[in-house]
Design goal:
2 copies of one chain form a homodimer.
Chain A (H helix, E strand, L loop, with lengths): L1 H7 L3 H9 L6 H14 L5 H8 L4 E6 L5 H16 L3 E6 L4 H13 L4 E5 L5 H10 L3 E4 L13 E4 L2 H14 L5 E6 L2 H16 L6 E5 L8 H11 L5 E4 L2 H14 L8 E3 L5 H5 L6 E4 L1 H16 L8 E3 L2 E4 L5
Parallel strand pairs in A: 1-2, 1-3, 3-4, 4-5, 5-11, 6-7, 6-8, 8-9
Antiparallel strand pairs in A: 10-12
Helix pairs in contact in A: 1-2, 1-3, 5-13, 8-9
The structure holds a DNA duplex.
Chain lengths: 328, 328
DNA sequence: GTGAAAGCGCTAACAC
DNA sequence: GTGTTAGCGCTTTCAC
């Protein structure tokens, strides 16, 4: 930077200003500085700037895995929202492990990220306190703060997993199904959806839900084996709520293979409204959630906080929507 | 850090050493320092460390979009390989735009990333030169350096897209197909596969391939409309090579919808060997590529370079494999 | 094994 | 509108 300053015949600060607040520099000086920058091929060191200004312009996000399309879309929208304001994204993957999440948070705090986006609300208390003490803006996603273990750290954007489970059950019950099953990943959000799903079924005076869990990360081909075991135990099952559209698509293929007609013999309901649910044959009924908006909203909340703009609310409920298609 | 030093009764440098090279500090001193760190809740500022040491321990990766499962898996493996050595990943998404890619590179160079992972080989010359001048380790992925516009910047890991296209064509020709079609995204790698595919078809003395391009990012539901147009123009088509398994699955659903039997009326070949290709009914023949290994290998190459370990080769060909299943 | 001194390349605060 | 001064919180180098 001092080379540039010398070349342009100005002082070092002026170069800094030309870069960061060009409107506070005269036209001629600005031109001279820019010429010098081009001439010397100068690339500003943002790390030094971060150290001096105490703002890294980096936000970190932790997801269980980026290989799950639903998280990928949230991250994509988040990255793009942040990029508009010159922020970059550090990506962390917890692999559904609380311990890995905690150690990622430590690293990210050490890097002095300006903000943090977490997935879910089941962080241990110690982590919550650490984050609150660190005084770093945090957005939790893919759920909503509420009673139980779902505690708010700072800000939140998502939807009610329990409510989504309830709505799925109501949809299937309204279609006349009386023996319902559930297939989901063995993790917190999926269990919350099951909770709502089950509550609705029991409230209708029906036998309990037949539930199967597959270890996360969910693979599309995990559904087939589940189906076999399920129908063996409960041949009366007529509807399955899959906690992921990909899982539902896999189940649909498994039904085709077994000659089970969908929805006549077995109704299938997905979750997420991924493009595949619309493309499938029959098209899959599902619960639409606003994945991209979740990332965008998380980014906006952080940016607002970072620019000291007053936030309307610390928590945003993006809701969900039952999409009725042909598989139920 | 000086607070910790005071608390532990040692100098500031000793704290730094206890953190970075604990083996160079005596057992007692180490214990004292660690006690002080816990007591004070000290979190080292890695940005300051980066500035002083001129190593950021950050690697940046640029992919077209993280919402495409194939890239997500590469990124996942890369992140995990880097994490083992204490490196974090900055994620950039170009949205298939060369301009966006160039501007991301500028930002990342400004952040003084220790390494860079790029997707593809068609970077403009100016970008290549800039990266080479910056003297930062770079790995290009999802292809191989070779003649044409595919120039090597520094290191590479991938497979031959042209070769994969050729192999797909040979597979279909061997099954007796004589009128072949292609559906792919309108981007460089897809075009290279078409190039190999077409070359093989023409070499067999057959009519040219019927090719359809969909704008990236590819969506699973993009295939259906393509199919209609294709069969209208060329009702003789008996096999389609889709440049993505998701696209192939979408095509399979479209065939079910139209009552076209797969593979009897139309053979479908996918690309990537995503889990869905095995789960599909009929299971999809496809070209397996080693997505996760690509990320892992890219990470290893960078880490080797960063720790000054001699690399065996600057370029790794991970190959591909034709997976024969029921859809062809 | 430990410490003192000298920066890393910037920005913040204040002066002019 | 521009410059001067004083750091940001570490690591490196060299000395002991």
């Amino acid at each position: 930077m001092s080379d540039v300053a010398r070349e342009a015949g100005v002082s070092l600060v002026t170069v800094s200003r030309a870069l960061n607040t060009p409107e506070k520099v005269s036209r001629d000086t600005l031109a001279a500085v820019r010429r010098a920058i081009d001439l010397l091929g100068y690339v500003p060191n943002l790390m030094a700037g971060s150290l001096a200004s105490n703002r890294s312009r980096i936000v970190a996000a932790i997801v269980p895995t980026i290989s799950n399309l639903v998280f990928a879309e949230t991250i994509e929208a988040l990255t793009q929202t942040l990029a508009k304001d010159g922020y970059q994204l550090l990506l962390g993957q917890s692999g559904y492990s609380k311990q890995a999440e905690a150690s990622l948070v430590d690293t990210f705090l050490g890097r002095r990220v300006d903000g943090l986006v977490l997935t879910g609300f089941s962080q241990p208390k110690a982590l919550r306190l650490k984050l609150q003490r660190a005084n770093v803006p945090v957005v939790q996603t893919w759920g909503l703060p509420g009673p139980g273990q779902t505690t708010l750290i700072d800000m939140a954007v998502g939807f009610s997993n329990v409510g989504a489970g309830r709505a799925a059950a109501r949809h299937l019950l309204a279609r006349g199904h009386r023996a319902l099953a559930f297939i989901g990943a063995d993790e917190a959000r999926s269990r919350q959806r099951l909770q709502g799903y089950r509550a609705e079924v029991l409230a209708a005076g029906l036998p309990d839900v037949e539930a199967a869990f597959v270890p996360p990360p969910v693979q599309v081909d995990a559904a087939g084996p589940c189906l076999d075991r399920m129908l063996e135990r409960r041949p009366d099952i007529t509807a399955v709520f899959c906690n992921n559209d990909l899982l539902a698509a896999g189940l649909l293929f498994a039904c085709q293979r077994h000659g089970l007609r969908v929805p006549d013999r077995l109704a299938i309901m997905g979750f997420g409204d991924l493009p595949i649910s619309r493309a499938a044959c029959p098209a899959l009924s599902t619960v639409r959630i606003r994945r991209a908006e979740m990332g965008e909203q998380a980014g906006k909340m952080l940016l607002a906080r970072l620019s000291s703009v007053a936030l309307e609310a610390t928590s945003a409920d993006l809701g969900f929507e039952i999409i009725e298609r042909s598989s139920t």
